[in-house]
Amino acid sequence: MDGREISVRRIMAVCDADSCYAGRFAEVANRVKSIPFEVVAFTSLARLKEFTEKEQVELLLVGDNAEEADLTDVKVERVIRLSEEGTVKDDRPTIYKYQSSDSVLREVMACCQVWEQPFTSQTVRSKSRVLGVYSPLSRCGKTSFAFTLGQVLAQNGKALLLSLEECSGLSKLTATVYGSTLSDVLYYYRQGEYSRLRLSSSIYSWGGLDYVPPVTYAEDLAGLRGNEVAGLVGAIAADGMYEAIVVDLGHFTGGIEDTLMLCDLIYMPVKEDAVASAKLEEWKDYLNASGRDCLWEKIRLLKLPRPRLVYSCETYLEQLLWGEFGDFVRELVCRSGRTTIE
Predict the structure, then answer these.
(1) Which of 150, 291, 309, 327 could bridge to 161 as Cys pair (CB 3.0-4.6 Å)?
(2) Which domains does the chain have, with CATH numbers?
(3) How confident is the model at residue 227 (pLDDT cuts 50, 70, 90)?
């Protein structure tokens, strides 16, 4: 593929009497990389009706103030209600209006899953570049590096972080209670029901970086076969939503080498001590014995800088990005001369 996109304009309209709400929602939604729509704001159904005479609108988010009879002349394929009280006005899907825009969008994508056929992708994209972060060593800064790498890449393009750690600490570090996690995405994939919309309903953002929260329970990873994880990562990459996908691989994931094989590049943080060196050599011997010695050509060993300060959970991710650690990662990106590291 030559990297060009063949796209069809797909429109989601939001119509609400509160012009500040409608305009702000559209502004935020149009910055979200995982939403397959262009969002257009309206404050009156009359203006919306005029617009639908000229443009095809797939989805409408409309406030409680709009009467059902007034919607009959509006040419839209699907309608979701935005409720101010959290109550259901009619038989249409209903979302509570006064929550974060990210939360509203995740609920919208969850509703769209029911209408899977009309919302299949109409864009042909280049495959995403997959960057693996893995180490057979413990306490080497792997997860901090993966998140910082993702944030740096997101400053230059679209980037997604997939954490396959059984206990990453992201919920505490981001102070976020997750309603949907990688457990949900893996479930749908194993059932043969994975789609871009199902992925979008589990995506959160931090500083411009999209990420899927880690599994709810470590056992969700323990029961996976290696080719299932690799298959999911490959499916996300093939969809081409992102320029780069950073995969933080933990020790709990079975058959981890299958996922490493599809990575374009693998970053491996290491430490300088006798035990670390012995573990690394042992893992290298395993690759040779299992016929996967070609993996070694993709691996870049990294000795990461140690944070000089004791960071609090509340500010840890920001301090990593803008401290010595972030400078180290930015230098890696800068040396490559492109938005993804060579």
Answers:
(1) 150
(2) 11-119 (3.40.50.10850), 129-336 (3.40.50.300)
(3) confident
